Amino acid sequence: MKKKKSTAKSVKRAVLTAVGGICLASAGIYLGVGYYYSSHFFPQTVINGLNCAGLTVEQVKTKIQNRILEYSLTLKERGGTYDVLTGDQIGLTYVDDQMVEQLLEDQNAWSWPMTMMKKKTYQFQANSIYDKEKLFNLLSALTCFKEEYSQAPTDAYITDNGISYEIIPETMGNTLDGEAAKQVVADAVDRGETEVDFEKEDLYIKPQIYRDDEALNREAEQLNQLTNARITYDFVDRSYTVDRALIQSWLIQDEEGNYGIDEASAAAWVRQMAYETDTFGLAHSFKTSLGPTIQLKAGGDYGWCINKSRTTESLIEAIKAGAVENREPVYLYSGKDRSSNDIGNTYVEVCISEQTMWCYKDGVLVSKTPVVTGSHATGYDTPAGSVWAVDAKKRDYDFTLYDAHVMFWMPFNENVGIHDSSWRTEYGGEIYLDNGSHGCVNTPYAEAEKIYNSIEIGDPVIVYYSLDDVVGPEPTQENGI
């Protein structure tokens, strides 16, 4: 029995000894591992993206420094080009701020049995310094920062392509705002960024005026509307046209930038047109029914006279409206034919020396008749040497100055006119010298009727004394019938 008790005690003692050994060994391991991780980071520790498992503080700092030295910053430029800056080029250096020590201390090495196999990720801003002057000098040396290699932006503008005004779009160029760009790059380095896109950062100098600029488009629209106009004044055998090129020379701009027409220039053009085409009261060249062409003197009241102020006004209005049309000038006085020979083909012709009158309708002779004109002996000579217009047409007419009644009255020079004369039985010859009228053209009834039915108010009446002397004797008495 004693032997059995002794054996049991021995076994118990052995077990206790073994347990004690294990505990001592475990304690040693715990203390040893804990001591190790008091200066080393746990497995699966990641700091700022770096695998720091089992590394000491200094080893981690070395890794961080190496990472900083590997730093690069890509500068993306307009047009697809780019440059790369490295940490080494700008003297980038890690600044120890004891953050790694703090992370190791926070690790709590003595809790390793429970935490060492758990993944731990730490992220902190690793302080660094660099040589900013070196950075700025490096940037200044890059092509994209050099003025001689940059293309300045251009504003959108209006150009004349010969047919219309069009807007030429702006160009963006590639000129950097150098100072702003350098500061953005420096800020990116400070933040540890790896890319700067100059386009996205809005670092390029911009045009001042773009193709969609409201004022620019309004200007182009005004220019096109004004210069699209084409106004033609047609005078049958000649014409005067206000076209694009002429309008361009008249363009003016007001203080607000709006385009208009220089009224003085338009008025000068109208005056020149009037000078070249007006015929009212002026000398005329006339081919007589007797054959020769004579030169009638100025002084009659037939012809064309442009109202220059109103024509200028209407012209400017038409240009502003962009009109493309033929139009008439505004007239003070109008003739019947707008060609250079404004007498045309419908007229009455009187030759005093021949005591003959002709009437043409559309170039066809409808009457050739002897007449009696103003009495030369009493000073009632019929005014001659010019062209007058028929002022009126009246039937069954009583004169107020004299006791006379006519059926066809066609005045053309105040109280002087063409009319029938029932009191006469003879016409032509030399009757007018001693027994003529008070200035009017006395005409046989049938011929007066033909003429009355052939002409209209405003038609020309040409009176000349002879082929050699178109004016002839001047009247000394006030004319009338």
Account of the protein in words:
It is a single chain. The protein is an alpha+beta fold. Helix content is 31%, strand content 23%. It has 12 helices and 28 strands. The protein has helices at 2-37, 57-69, 99-106, 112-115, 132-140, 178-190, 214-228, 244-250, 263-277, 308-320, 431-435, 445-454; strands at residues 45-47, 50-51, 72-76, 82-86, 93-94, 120-122, 128-129, 157-160, 165-168, 195-197, 230-234, 239-242, 251-253, 259-261, 284-287, 293-296, 305-306, 324-326, 331-333, 347-351, 356-361, 364-370, 386-389, 394-398, 405-413, 416-420, 441-443, 460-464. The longest helix is centred in the N-terminal third of the chain and has 36 residues, at 2-37. The chain is rod-shaped, with a radius of gyration of 57 Å. The mean pLDDT is 91.
Shape: rod-shaped
The overall pLDDT average reads: 91
- Biggest sheet overview: 5 strands, mixed
Gyration radius (Cα, Å) is 57 Å
Class from secondary-structure proportions: alpha+beta
Strand content: 15-25%
Share of helical residues: 25-40%
Count, helices: 12
Count the strands? 28
For the biggest β-sheet, the strand order reads 22-21-20-28-23
Unreliable sequence segments: none
Q: Could you list some keywords that capture this structure?
A:
single chain, 28 strands, 481 residues, 12 helices, four-stranded mixed beta sheet
Task: Break the fold down into its secondary structure elements and pairings.
Blueprint: H1 2-37, E1 45-47, E2 50-51, H2 57-69, E3 72-76, E4 82-86, E5 93-94, H3 99-106, H4 112-115, E6 120-122, E7 128-129, H5 132-140, E8 157-160, E9 165-168, H6 178-190, E10 195-197, H7 214-228, E11 230-234, E12 239-242, H8 244-250, E13 251-253, E14 259-261, H9 263-277, E15 284-287, E16 293-296, E17 305-306, H10 308-320, E18 324-326, E19 331-333, E20 347-351, E21 356-361, E22 364-370, E23 386-389, E24 394-398, E25 405-413, E26 416-420, H11 431-435, E27 441-443, H12 445-454, E28 460-464
Parallel strand pairs: 1-6, 3-10, 11-18, 20-28, 26-27
Antiparallel strand pairs: 1-2, 3-4, 5-7, 8-9, 11-12, 13-14, 15-16, 17-19, 20-21, 21-22, 23-28, 24-25, 25-26
Helix pairs in contact: 9-10
